[in-house]
Amino acid sequence: MEEQYGFVVAAYVVMWVGVIGYLVRLRRVSRAARRRLDEASRGAGRKA
Length: 48
Prior knowledge:
Blueprint: H1 2-47
């Protein structure tokens, strides 16, 4: 019983680490994409 509980806890921790890592990566990517969009729109505004 205790071994099973440990396995459940380990699976839960691994799942949360994966979820948090995914969210962090998503946030970093969206921030970089937003910066790229801002630079592109600024450049277009300057040209126009």
